[in-house]
Write a structure and sequence with these properties.
Blueprint lengths: L1 H19 L46 E10 L6 E3 L8 E3 L25 E5 L2 E8 L2
Antiparallel strand pairs: 1-5, 2-3, 4-5
Length: 138
């Protein structure tokens, strides 16, 4: 009787292990457009939203294509972490971290708009004040 119980236990374990080793189908490739990640430090592709004269649709003047423009604020800071974008989509200026907008319900386009912090821009602490680093594509 003990032998029968041991045989049944061994058989049950064998079947259990065999069931766990089923071949799994490879994960399906996600559909949609392919995402291309550029090399860090490489010059990004031209940005839609610029006119042929190198201007931008953002309304900010003085930004040369392929350059960075710093827009200073009166917001005091000690490090870059103290400064955040003032709006959820296509920001052009920075505010203090405590005044950050709630973007949890926002849906923004994936545009890389010239004269904004969308691509290659961001908030920096410069000379003790928050500043927006706006990038203008070549």
């Amino acid at each position: 009787m003990k032998q029968l119980g041991a045989v049944m236990l061994a058989l049950g374990l064998s079947l259990g292990l065999a069931a766990c080793e089923k071949d799994r189908q490879p994960a399906a490739e996600p559909g949609g457009p392919t995402v291309v990640v550029e090399e860090p430090g490489a010059t990004p592709s031209p940005v839609p939203g610029e006119d042929s004269a190198g201007g931008s649709e953002s309304g900010l003047e003085g930004g040369e294509p392929g350059t960075t423009k710093i827009v200073e604020t009166d917001v005091a800071c000690q490090s870059d972490a103290d400064c955040v974008a003032s709006s959820c989509c296509h920001p052009t200026t920075c505010v203090a971290l405590v005044d950050a907008p709630d973007c949890s319900a926002s849906t923004c386009t994936m545009d890389c708009r010239a004269g904004t912090m969308d691509c290659n821009g961001g908030c920096v602490c410069q000379a003790g004040r928050c500043a927006a680093q706006l990038w203008f594509a070549p």
